[in-house]
Design a protein that fits this description.
Layout (H helix, E strand, L loop, with lengths): L17 H8 L12 E6 L5 E8 L2 H15 L6 H16 L6 E8 L2 E10 L4 E9 L6 H16 L4 E4 L4 H9 L21 E4 H6 L4 H6 L9 H6 L12
Parallel strand pairs: 5-6
Antiparallel strand pairs: 1-2, 2-3, 3-4, 4-5, 6-7
């Protein structure tokens, strides 16, 4: 848009350093505590156990995950296509600093990406759940990943409330139904993912009920004392050749 200046000016063209523009486009970051890394044994249907190692995503994970998400986006069932597209944008948005105060957790089994969970902070009191995905069947990976990011938001980062929405039936059953999450009236309250219904967990509800959910559901809890053996087994990050969806 162009308007004539209401007074004579000495310089009619301004040269602007893009670094000055970036200061306006990039949201000033909050100071968020890091995820401390954790592990949890997951019981398989054949009676064996696999150790899931959950750590914060690293910049070196981004490009492999973006390539992997292209494969997920091509799956036209159970809403993997739309979730894959949105997760691709969120990974890239965090990498390009176009997502406000995001946090991303990756769940690894022997170095291979098995689960993904991310969210962001609206402000110091409200954290927004974005997506939870699993790429290996069985073992209740989704429960562990969703719980981990909820734990991070409410227990570690100090939010007072956690907002979620669900694009798939399985996601709603796992976290919305099994955690007995109430919802706010719609459309007065809308989640940023497409204006969908908001399901929520307050810190009070977390402390009274949900905090024990993972142990009740899986029989195990997050262990933040990660062993050197588990850390070493997961030091080389890789994505599956084919997502098991």
């Amino acid at each position: 848009m162009r308007l004539e200046p209401p007074e004579k000016v000495s310089v009619e063209e301004l040269k602007i350093d893009v670094r000055e523009v970036e200061a306006l486009l990039q949201a000033p970051p909050m100071v968020l505590k890091p995820w401390p890394e954790a592990m949890i044994p997951l019981k398989q249907r054949d009676g064996t156990e696999k150790i899931l190692y959950i750590r914060q995503s690293q910049p070196s994970d981004v490009l492999p995950m973006l390539e992997f998400m292209k494969k997920v986006m091509a799956v036209e069932k159970d809403f993997y296509d739309i979730v894959g597209a949105r997760v691709y944008a969120e990974i890239l948005g965090e990498y390009r600093k176009r997502l406000k105060d995001p946090f991303t957790l990756v769940g690894l089994i022997d170095g291979e990406l098995a689960g993904f969970a991310n969210g962001r902070f609206m402000n110091e009191n409200l954290a927004i759940s974005l997506h939870t995905m699993t790429f290996l069947r069985r073992g209740s990976l989704g429960y562990a990943m969703y719980y981990a990011k909820t734990y991070y938001a409410l227990e570690i980062a100090g939010a007072n409330e956690w907002w979620s929405t669900f694009e798939s039936y399985n996601g709603w059953r796992m976290a919305g139904l099994d955690m007995a999450q109430p919802s706010y009236p719609w459309p007065e309250y809308q989640h940023e993912l497409g204006g969908a219904r908001v399901f929520y967990v307050t810190k009070k509800y977390w402390d009274s009920s949900v905090k024990n959910f993972l142990k009740q559901k899986l029989g195990n809890d997050l262990n933040f004392k990660v062993t050197d053996e588990v850390r070493k087994a997961n030091e080389n990050f890789r994505c599956p050749e084919v997502p098991e969806l």
